[in-house]
Design goal:
CATH superfamily of the largest domain: Transferase(Phosphotransferase) domain 1
Number of strands: 9
Radius of gyration: 19 Å
Number of domains: 2
Distance between the termini: 41 Å
Structural class: alpha+beta
Number of helices: 6
Length: about 250
Amino acid sequence: MPQVPTKLGRYEIVKHLANGGMAQVLIARATGIEGFERHVVVKRIHQEHAADPAFVKMFLDEARTAAALHHNNIVQVHDIGKENGEYFFAMEYVHGQDLRMLLKEASRRKHKVPWEHVITIMTSAAAGLHHAHELRGSDRKPLGLVHRDVSPANILIGYDGTVKMVDFGIAKAALRTGEGTRGGALKGKISYMAPEQCAGKPIDRRSDVYALGVVLYELSTVRRLFKGENDFLTMSAIVAGDIPHPTQV
């Protein structure tokens, strides 16, 4: 595991949370005058990628994309910094679990998720996504933002009942500097990809809506919708569109 620093800028590192493809995810504490204290999540680019301009660009793209989104159902980015030549950014800490863990626990206990919770979670996630889809630039033109990785792992449920979308790291939008991700490249978790995404065709906000529909199906049934023995079979099932009625599973 990469070495965890004790401090990044004004943030005191509390614990290591996870390792992503291009960054460490850490829980940190920000302090200020008169005993001010706030916990945040810090993403820090991996040391082996810090000198790679392409990785640095992707990392900063994620920070810029997330920082442009201001909505109660989207995790907020507070700050971006650079320490010893390594970039990091700090974002809102949600004290809770992701929806993937909730579904896993419901499946283990053989429980259905109460409908009032299903409705609250899905309407909140949809509101956050809609805000992102409607985002406009300084010229008031639509940015065409697409999350591209809507899945239970990227929907956070706070212990206080808050619901927030997270991880716009592979989002595609006009606000990116340069070309961003290549058209036709497969991005996101296979089981939640739309048919056109599986085929490497151009995608738009409707692909996110499709993915959210898959999440709704799984939240309602506590069953995986698309899970083949390998990625090819999973994508084949998605493209075929043979979906059992929720009341039959």
